[in-house]
Design brief:
Blueprint (H helix, E strand, L loop, with lengths): L32 E5 L4 E5 L31 E5 L5 E4 L6 H8 L17 E6 L5 E6 L15 H7 L4 E7 L14 H15 L8 E6 L6 H12 L2 H5 L14 E6 L6 H44 L5
Parallel strand pairs: 4-6, 4-7, 7-8, 8-9
Antiparallel strand pairs: 1-2, 1-3, 5-6
């Protein structure tokens, strides 16, 4: 644990009757940091470049009211909680192909292997387009059942999803099994359980725009399996109703797009996903701008109505 204390104020002197105040405590942190006290109270967030937040004020300089003696600088125990700020959050069970997709679609170089939990910390990739447009994508550590209760990577993963504009869910067409003592989950079951984990952690996450990728379509038997589930992918609610309440989510994550692909073998698939992601984010930006304009227009309308009701004022 590092210790930081704001500077003390200086005492008055025969040359300066007013002592100089101590400097406030400031230090650089990454964008996306939340500052929390030991008691769990949030002090503030720093979500944009150049934002500043004073944690501890420097001591007051000496003056007549404090006996001309400078006071000590403030010191507070705080925790810095970093949540990645990315346009896209890449989620899925371990070994679904998240790192492979991130490497193929961006300039990132994540560790890739054929066993679960290769990614143990978030990787950030930048999608660059021919017109120099850039979009950020975070490959977040693999979820497992019970992640909402901090099993596996738990909250270390889920907290990062809150800062993304879009959820990109990637699923293995053959499903997933963490280890022999765990049940094998089919492709559709993994979708259901991932949505459930997001809901249990923070149900507001299900309001985010999302896209679904059915990965590993280059593997043996993948085309046949995809044909079997294709119709169910557009009626997930009907599929989920066949499962007990503790497994199925109360709300469905509505996917804007569902794309079968091979992140490992098909550059065409990767380019398609890259193009769709840009178009979706552009649509979201337009909708946000329209909403902001509507809010401004509503506010202006209320102000005009209020002024009319008051009548003219004389100066």
């Amino acid at each position: 644990m590092k210790r930081y204390i704001a500077k003390n104020g200086r005492h008055s002197s025969h040359n300066f009757i007013l002592g100089t105040p101590g400097e406030d405590l400031k230090f650089e942190v990454p964008v996306g940091v939340t500052l929390i006290t030991d008691f769990g109270k949030k002090i503030g967030e720093l979500n944009e470049e150049g934002e500043e937040l004073v944690i501890a004020k420097g001591g007051t300089g000496g003056h007549p009211k404090n006996g001309f003696l400078g006071t000590k600088g403030q010191a507070y125990p705080i925790k810095l909680d970093l949540k990645l700020i990315a346009d896209i959050g890449l989620v899925g069970f371990p070994n679904a192909g998240k790192s492979t997709l991130l490497k193929a679609i961006s300039q990132a170089k994540p560790k890739i292997a054929s066993y679960p939990f290769t990614t143990v910390r978030p990787n950030l990739g930048i999608l660059t387009y021919s017109d120099l447009r850039q979009i950020s994508m975070a490959d977040l550590p693999g979820l497992i059942e019970g992640a909402h209760a901090n099993k596996g990577m738990g909250h270390q993963f889920l907290k990062h999803v809150e800062r993304t504009k879009l959820i990109l869910m990637i699923i293995d067409i053959h499903g997933f099994q963490l280890s022999p003592q765990y049940p094998h989950r089919s492709c559709l079951e993994t979708i259901m359980l991932l949505i459930k984990e997001l809901e249990l952690y923070n149900e507001d996450l299900l309001n985010k725009p999302s896209m679904l990728l059915i990965n590993k379509m280059d593997s043996e038997g993948s085309i046949e399996k995809y044909k079997e589930i294709k119709d169910q992918l557009t009626n997930l609610k009907g599929f989920f109703e066949n499962y007990p309440e503790e497994m199925r989510p109360n709300k469905i994550l509505k996917f804007c797009d569902i794309i079968p692909m091979s992140a490992k073998e098909s550059t065409g698939d990767v380019d398609l996903v890259k193009d769709r992601l840009r178009k979706l984010l552009d649509v979201l930006a337009d909708l946000e701008a329209e909403e902001e304009d509507k809010e401004k227009a509503d506010l202006y309308g209320k102000m005009r109505k209020s002024m009319v009701e008051r009548g003219p004022s004389l100066v």
